[in-house]
């Protein structure tokens, strides 16, 4: 018995909106760092900070997604066990309460 994949469908419009908003915010920050009237060391520090924030945001999103998928699989297994127990129980059989 194969189990269906646990993947929620996202609309194309939602994906495009998320990608565009990420691109615009990243571009605005990069342009802001470039136009900032500071020296190259400060600009480099801000750029490295931006890289760390973006990479940690992706890592956090992946961890949250992975945890949610594990919980969904666990919930499905528990539900299947309960369903099996309920199917095996014959409520009309004498002697069962």
**Gap from first CA to last CA:** 32 Å
Tell me, briefly, the overall form.
elongated
Content of β-strand: under 5%
Query: Which regions contain 5 or more consecutive residues with pLDDT less than 50?
Result: none
Strand-and-helix sequence, N→C? HH
Nearest-integer average pLDDT: 84
Number of helices: 2
Q: Name the helicity range.
A: over 70%
The chain-level structural class is mainly alpha
How many individual β-strands?
0
The biggest sheet amounts to:
none
The Cα radius of gyration reads: 25 Å
Record the SSE blueprint:
Blueprint: H1 12-35, H2 40-88
Helix pairs in contact: 1-2
Structural description of this entry:
This protein has 97 residues and is an all-alpha fold. It is built from 2 helices and no strands. Helix 1 (12-35) runs antiparallel to helix 2 (40-88). It is elongated and about 85 Å long. The relative contact order is 0.07.
Structure characteristics:
mainly alpha; 97 residues
Summarize this structure briefly:
With 97 residues, this protein is mainly alpha-helical. The protein has helices at 12-35, 40-88.
């Amino acid at each position: 018995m194969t189990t269906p994949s646990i993947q929620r469908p996202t609309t194309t419009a939602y994906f495009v909106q998320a990608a565009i908003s990420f691109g615009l915010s990243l571009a605005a920050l990069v342009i802001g760092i470039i136009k900032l009237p500071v020296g190259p060391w400060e600009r480099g520090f801000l750029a490295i900070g931006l890289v760390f924030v973006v990479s940690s945001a992706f890592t956090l999103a992946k961890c949250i997604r992975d945890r949610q998928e594990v919980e969904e699989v666990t919930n499905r297994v528990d539900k299947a066990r309960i369903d099996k127990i309920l199917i095996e129980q014959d409520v009309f059989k004498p002697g069962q309460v």
